[in-house]
Amino acid sequence: MTRIAAVHGALAPHRRPQSEITDMVARTCLPEGSDRRVLDRLHRSTKVRSRHMTLPLERYGELDGFGTSNDVFIAAATDLGAKAVRGALHMAGLTAADVDLLIFTSVTGIATPSIDARLAGRLGLRPDVRRLPLFGLGCAGGAAGLARMHDYLLGRPGHVAVLLSVELCSLTFQRNDASMANLVATGLFGDGAAAVVACGGKRPRRTEETAGPTIVDSRSHLYPDTGRVMGWDIKNSGFQVILDPKVPDVVRRYLADDVEGFLSDHGIKPKDVTAWVCHPGGPKVLQAVTEALDLPEEALDVTWRHLADVGNLSSSSVLHVLRDTLAQRRPPPGTPGLLLAMGPGFACELVLLRW
Questions:
Q1: List of E strands, the chain
Q2: For 240, phi and psi rounded to 5 degrees?
Q3: Which residue out of 29, 139, 169, 199 is catalytically annotated?
Q4: What is the DSSP letter of 49?
Q5: 5-61 pLDDT, tens per residue?
Q6: Under-70 pLDDT residues of the chain
Q7: For labeling, which of 9, 202, 311, 338 is most exposed (least CB within 10 Å)?
């Protein structure tokens, strides 16, 4: 049994309304004197009201290449990651010395030594802590990280594992790039982190009010011929987003069979699920998820609120939605829940929960 002992979210320091971020994008991404009506329409359509940014808005025009942006990523991700892990361990009633495995996932920067290694000394982790840095999973990284944490704890039920996600999406926005993909991304993605503490076996947890669900099982599915639906092209300027408008169509084509088959293997039907912990891929993706799974109108309310308040935090978002579900809409004990996210590959990650 894998018990989620705590989930803690952290956000980048500079919160700005969507309108101010749109103005910054107009200055840095559009040719001087160009018509910005398409940009304004795209940013409004994301349904995002505000986002948290790593830097003050005026600093983004100074990021003159991948090296500069990535240096900012390393410093900021280490700071924000430390904050998230400390908060989660405190909530779980555990210390850094209790941690046996630290998984780190991100798709918005790179570092060697990896961010998890840089955090070990700062947090006071044991020298023999196991580390697993994950890169390239994109928005699915939070769900996939939970699944791999569960796999580890099945084999080591007396251990404590921590999953840390840090995504500083604003550092990937491409200057002087007026492509539709870049304009959509600059209106949707924000900066944040999340940490999850999980315990195998019967490790003590703090209280029922802060304890999360158990992880029952997980499933992954790579979809054929979808390699260019979502991802990065790596350029001298950094990570140039690939974001195909066909993403909602892929969701409608595949998701229902994946979810129904996975649940059926555990004797569960979609109507039995008491909470859908869904990654906020964007309004069209959330509408596609709702339609594909024939969900009630309110089923994804927590996800929609998260999207409006902070935008899409890539792999961190689904973990924030899990935290908010526990805080705002805790399901009845013993009932099933499903956590789901999709990302580059194109792939779906499903995690079956028991509240």
A1: 2-11, 14-17, 50-53, 101-106, 130-135, 160-168, 191-200, 214-222, 230-235, 238-243, 275-278, 336-343, 347-354
A2: -95, 120
A3: 139
A4: -
A5: 999 999 999 999 999 999 999 999 999 888 999 999 999 999 999 999 999 999 999
A6: 202-210
A7: 202
Report the C-alpha gap between 123 and 195 in whole angstroms.
Answer: 13
Distance CA 182, CA 237 (A): 13
3-class DSSP state of 245:
coil
- Res 208: pLDDT: 52
Bridge-based pairing of strands 2-11 and 214-222 is antiparallel
Q: What is the distance between the alpha carbons of residues 14 and 229, in angstroms, rounded to a whole number?
A: 31
* Residues composing the chain: 355
| Residue 16, both tokens | 């700005």
Instruction: Let me know: does 346 contact 223? Beta carbons within 8 Å.
Output: yes
Q: Quickly tell me which residue has 């939070």 as its tokens.
A: 142
Distances (CA, A) of 49 to 21, 274, 278: 10, 28, 19
Residues β-bridged to residue 232: 241
- Is 139 annotated as catalytic? yes
Helix (H/G/I), strand (E/B), else coil: 104: strand
